[in-house]
Amino acid sequence: MLRVMKRSLIASVDWFLYQFLSTTQKEKMASILTEKQKEKLKKIMNPGKKRTQIRKIERMKYRLYELGFRDRSIEDLKAFAAESGVLRQYAAWELAVWYVNQYSKRGAEQSLYYLEIALEGEKDSSTIRRAKVLQAECYARLGQVEQAANLLRNELKHSKHVDLYLGLASLIHSAEEKVNLLNEMYRAYHVSPILFTTDYDQTMYDRLIGTAKSKDNHQSAKVSVIIPAYNSAETVGTAIEAMVKQTWNNLEILVVDDCSTDHTKEVILQYANQDHRVKYLSTPLMGEHM
Fold this sequence. Notes:
It is a single chain. This protein is mostly helical and 290 residues long. The protein has two domains: 47-191, Serine Threonine Protein Phosphatase 5, Tetratricopeptide repeat; 223-282. The protein has twelve helices and five strands. The strands form two sheets. It has a three-stranded parallel sheet, with helices on one face. Strand 3 (223-229), helix 11 (236-244) and strand 4 (251-257) form a beta-alpha-beta unit. 19% of the residues are buried.
């Protein structure tokens, strides 16, 4: 109850100071208060001021992403990022995210610049981790793959987070190293590891198998999986294999052939003959029932 009352009081004072009073009135009030009173007022007002600043950023994000006012919103964010205070970091973070999503070298350079500002004095481990992932993405886009990988490796020493593992795995070219790294992540999250079979005639992806044991859960809910297919004789088998090897075996796998002209039907039927859970369905030709 006290917390609610305090929040309401802060909101009222916040509105009075930032919305009602003019600049001249604020200056006059400041000249009347002692330094001690100013400090007390500052402690009370900081949370309210922070919320006001965050709302400004949220409005800019809305104009940027929802309304499409890109140029004006970016310029406003840059102006705030050039100032001092909390708003500077919030604005810099949004600019960093915007620029990294431009998927260009210029965007990567800009993102790195604003990430440095966003991290000024930052102590929150979650924010730092997210920033490191963005920095690694930028370095990779600039062709500095080893620097990106080392950045994530160093961060993994402090935080065994899935984002760091997956980010690092995306930078590694060796399939075996990728699997080793993913298994390290799985162990950290108490998930069964994966490994490669020795069937070298298969593609690298098809050679991947899980080590978790299938459970007899036929008394549990049946899960229906729908796999659409069109001229996918070369790939539909991979999708079906991934389903039949799930540890949840109470499945029905509905493979829908959308009038394929290759051997998709034959491949699906081959699996259907081997596993009763796989069902072959087909869509009618356009105009067939007209």
